[in-house]
Amino acid sequence: MKNRLAQRIHDVPPSGIRRFFDIAAQMHDVVSLGIGEPDFVTPDHIRQAAIDSITAGKTAYTSNSGLIELRQAVADHLHAKYGVQYDPEEEILITVGVSEALQQAMLSLINPGDEVIVPEPCFVAYTACVIFAGGVPVTVPTYVADEFMVDPKAIEAAITPRTKAILIGYPNNPTGAVIDAARMQAIVDIARAHNLVLLSDEIYDRLVYGVEHVCAAACEGARDLTVLMGGFSKAYAMTGWRLGWLAAPADICGAVRKVHQYGIMSAPTAAQYAGLAALLHGEPDVQHMVNEYDQRRQVLVAGLRRIGLPTFEPRGAFYVFPDIRSTGLSSAEFCERLLTEEHVAVIPGDVFGPSGAGFVRLCYASSMHNIETALERIERFVGRIA
To answer: Which domains does the chain have, with CATH numbers?
Structure first.
């Protein structure tokens, strides 16, 4: 049957990240700096909270919106950290990771043909989520000369009568870029002026180095037009727990909750108790991991520069995004040859959008030993092809 599959499936390419991950998984002696997953184990007390909930027989569904204690803890965290207030009953939803939050938000907001502006390079799921919701992603490039911070004027220039929303993600995956307060406020002002929704994926908000994270919803006039999304996977090393949250004005949160109700009975119960422990008692663990990432970040940036690959200093997340154009190879060629010849897995920059061409993404959520080994192999590879 020629038309068996929906057109949207053909419109979304397979994940370029998964392609390299699958190849690397079949090889021996591979140092992988590809997948953005912490190499830390979830802290003991967080795991114990989940174990205790299971032992106590707390294995049934929670409220579809999530444990009220966890929603309250999210609200308290956002107020204490960024000064923004949400009603845990009406304006916070516990989700199966930020991925679910983002997809359900798109399904709740986007009509067929609506345009969503997406600065790129960006996480590969952003444009896919727009397409799956029937929308049209309109990408806006960012540049290393601006440290991959989006230009608000470029966002405004991309607005048409069909524009419904702006989707941003800072700290950024894949570049490690953060955005300054002035640019974030300018984006908020543009969204207000054009009556747009601002969706902000802030899953990496706690992983910043030498700067302060700018929470989109905390900007002047932003709260009532912003869908704020975050979670536990990166800062608390809880990737496999699949736990996130969405905070938004009551009408938007209610709409997302309606879609969530038909897709998910509730986020995993034990994971919710673990998330509660993380928010209440996990700050020392976050600081420990941030300090470790910072050391690795500095070693990787310095090593890549020494090899001769220009690398701007990332200030957030756990990625570096070096410029490999001096090698004469495309991003895909560089990654394929580095994997086959030196057994180092990294990701082509252009899988995150056209403005990532000529760059590759390396993740430093790996041991210092792996990072140093990878640098030795990359130096050997670059020296051989130069």
So the answer is: 7-42+284-385 (3.90.1150.10), 59-281 (3.40.640.10)
